[in-house]
Amino acid sequence: MNREAVITEALDLLDEVGLExxxxxxxxxxxxxxxxxxxxxxxxxxxxxxxxxxxxxxxHADAPLxxxxxxxxxxxxxxxxxxxxxxxxxRDGARLHAGSTPRGDLDRIRRKMAFLVxxxxxxxxxxxxxxxASRFTVGCVLEEQAEADAPDAGxxxxxxxxxxxxxxxxxxxxxxxxxxxxxxxxxxx
Length: 189
Description:
By secondary structure, the chain is an all-alpha fold.
């Protein structure tokens, strides 16, 4: 049993039972080991959850970084979409990610910020837009995943249309981008 195997098994457990039911006791039983042996790899459950969050974000963390010739607007949208897709890959992916610290991702975040600034976006606006888009994305996915897990998710009155989560996400993301474009244009004047 190595650290990667424990994380992989913990993520599989997450997909099966949801974040509330993930426990070190349950994970140890699943791995066929005693619970204290997990502490060799993770001192606390919080450490395990942080490692799970980092591994769950790998598809987004491994996405190509922007190139100087990329249009910053298109990149900004696609970066947020990639983040959303990655959160949706795991049951309770947004809850797992919320509050986590991007330890291994700081260099990538700096490079993304540098790309926006080099593209003409004022640094403070770039920081706030990336933060807003990130939190907006997590919030959208939290709502989407909560609705999917709700026992009465399909019990809407006939006159209330079901929410198209992707369309709502795209609309909100477009509004964030419009605001960023406006602030960038204002700063350039």
